[in-house]
Amino acid sequence: MYFIQPTRDIPNSDQILNALPGLQMIHIENIHLYDPTIIVIADVHDYLQHQWHLPTVVIAGENEGAALSQAWESGALAGWIWDHLPDHPEHALSRIDAQYKRNQDSRDLPTAAALQKKLLPNPVELQNYQVEALFKPSAYLSGDWYDYWKISDQEVLFYLADVSGHGVASSLLTSWMAAFHGRAKTVRELITKLNGMLVQENIEKHITMIAGVLNLETHVLTWSSAGHYPPPIILEPSQPPRILNTSSFPLGLTENLEVEEYECSLTHQARFIICSDGALEPFDGGLNEQFSQLVFHLQNQSFQTPDHVPDDIAILSLRRMN
């Protein structure tokens, strides 16, 4: 960290260097040459006069409370008194630095969220089908994810995944999935590859997932679930909903994960819908009641996300048009 040499005469100003021998003395005219993310310690008058943007701990005289208050309003991290430095200045400065870094991380979250959304798949034109998606993080970053890509002129592979937990670690795994799947060609390859990597790296997270391959000409959909809830839903005009229940393990729990594949056919105007469990949160009751309400609103195309959701929500729908 840096100590800016005061431009006014301050008796015993060297005591700050004695208390913090790791500080590097710099001069105001050279301040632009130094790392703008490293904390500096400076006299309050210099800080107020020059108004630099480096993270700063200001030091004032005992009777300069007004100057300290003005410095805080201008963005100073903390204020000390020249003749009464903290008993353990290294520890105090370490705490200030840690809080500053946490605040910087928080400020970066909107940018990180924008970058994460850029990793979502671009809209794609599919023969006979329309892809519809909803992505609603509960905070800035999401632990839910979906992706799709063509594996041939007749087939598209897709998945929707839900990483356990919340926060930055879970959202990083979604970005990792987006980069790691390597445009797999089959459901089995995708699930096996992701599971093997999670187990190998011993990441203390698990991922539930539904993945499938849709043939755009035969309308046959082959899919698998890795411990995911809610189950896939097929909605067809004038027909009761078809709920495709399965029992399986999430990714990352066992190296010998069994991948069971299932088939279904999509009729004219049928919708194959997969959701993360956050889609249940807007509804009251237990899981069964919540799921029934979710299906009702999806069937009537009346599902709406609240402004503030307690859990990430992702929904992916494949609708047969012709």
What would you note in describing this structure?
This protein has 322 residues and is α/β, with parallel strands linked by helices. It has 2 domains: 108 residues, Rossmann fold (3-Layer(aba) Sandwich); 202 residues, PPM-type phosphatase domain (Phosphatase 2c, domain 1, 4-Layer Sandwich). Helix content is 29%, strand content 25%. Helix 2 packs across helix 3.
CATH architecture call of the largest domain: 4-Layer Sandwich
Q: Using DSSP, what is the number of strands?
A: 15
CATH superfamily of the largest domain: PPM-type phosphatase domain
Shape: elongated
What's the SSE pattern? EHEEHEHEHEEEHHEEEEEEHE
- Looking across the biggest beta sheet, what order are the strands in? 2-1-3-4-5
Stretches where pLDDT is under 50 for at least 5 consecutive residues are: none
* Tally of helical runs: 7
Q: Helix/strand/pairing class, anyone?
A: alpha/beta
Profile the largest sheet.
5 strands, parallel
Overall mean pLDDT:
88
Binned, the helix content reads 25-40%
- The whole-angstrom Rg is 28 Å
| Distance between the first and last residues' Cα | 66 Å
CATH class category name of the largest domain: Alpha Beta
Report the sheet-strand fraction.
25-35%
CATH topology of the largest domain: Phosphatase 2c, domain 1
Domain tally: 2
